[in-house]
Amino acid sequence: MLVSLVVTGVVPYDKIKLEAPLAEAFISVGQSTIAQVISIGALAGLTTVALILMMGQARVFFAMSRDHLLPPAFSRVSKRFKTPYRTTIATGIVVAALAFFVDLQTLAELVNIGTLFAFIVVALGILVLRRTRPDLERAYRTPLVPLVPILAVLASLWLMLNLPAERWQRFFIWMALGVVVYFVYSRRHSRLARVPEER
Predict the structure, then answer these.
(1) Distance from C-alpha of 118 to C-alpha of 133, rounded to nearest angstrom
(2) Does the pLDDT at position 104 exceed 80?
(3) Are 65 and 57 spatial neighbours (Cβ–Cβ below 8 Å)?
(4) Domain coverage including residue 183
(5) Best-predicted range by mean pLDDT (87-101, 124-138, 145-159, 164-178)
(6) Total number of domains constituting the chain
(7) Residue/partner pairs of 107-113 with CB below 8 Å, 24 or more apart
(8) Is 197 or 12 the better-scoring residue by pLDDT?
(9) Alpha carbon distance 100, 95 (integer Å)
C-alpha cells in the first residue's frame, strides 16, 4: 500500500503504465538507473514466486497422492534427494506448457483467482473448525475470530470479483475438472473411504 502511495505521488494514477509501474515512475523523474535495478528485482521476484508456486503445487499433489486422492505413483520420493520427484516433474511440464501457450497477465490472474479462492476456503475452515472441533490442538490461533476470517473472506471475494469474466470462466473450468477427478477417482480411493474410523 505504501509503494502504491509513493507511485501515485510521483505519477498521476491515470498515467501509471501498468506493465511496469515502479520502473516507469522512476524513469518519469529521470532516475533510469534505479528503474533498471527495480526491473531486475522484479524479474528476480517473478522467477522466485514461480519456482515457489511450482514447489508448493508439487507438494500439494504429493500429499494428495499419499492420501490416495491421486494415484499412488505420485507419492514416490527420490531415494537420493528425498523429494517428490514425480509430482515435481509433472508440475514442471504442465507449468512450462501453460507458460508457452498462455500470456503472462492471464497466468498471473489465474494464479490470483486460485490463490484468493484458497484463502477463502482456509478462512471458512477456521470458522468451521472453531465450531466443530474446539478441542483440536492448534500451533497457531487466529485472533479475533470470527471477525478476522470474515474480513479475509470478504476482502478475497472483493478482489476476485474485480478480475475479468474470462478468468472466472477458466477458474470454473479448472474447478469442474477437479470435481470430475474427485468423483471419478479420489472419492473411491481416498484413505478416508477405505478406513471409515479415521473420519
Answers:
(1) 21
(2) no
(3) no
(4) 103-199
(5) 145-159
(6) 1
(7) 109/163, 109/164, 109/167, 110/167, 110/170, 110/171, 110/174, 111/53, 112/159, 112/163, 113/160, 113/163, 113/167, 113/168, 113/171
(8) 12
(9) 9
Q: What is the pTM of this model?
A: 0.68
pLDDT of residue 85: 92
User: Is residue 198 in a domain?
Assistant: yes
How far is Cα 183 from Cα 112, in angstroms, rounded to an integer? 26
**C-alpha angle 57/75/89, rounded to 5°?**
50
Residue 54 lies in a domain: no
In this prediction, residue 196 carries a pLDDT of 58
Give me the count of residues in the chain.
199
Helices (H), 67-186: 85-101, 104-132, 147-161, 165-181
117 within domain boundaries: yes
Cell numbers at 128, concatenated = 468451521
CB contact at 8 A, 26 and 9? no
Q: What is the gyration radius of the CA atoms in the chain, in angstroms?
A: 21
Chain centre to alpha carbon of residue 176: 18
CB of 108 within 8 A of CB of 158? no
pLDDT band of 188, cuts 50, 70, 90:
confident
What pLDDT shows up at residue 29?
Answer: 84
Report the pLDDT value the prediction gives residue 154, as an integer from 0 to 100.
97
Position 41 in a domain: no
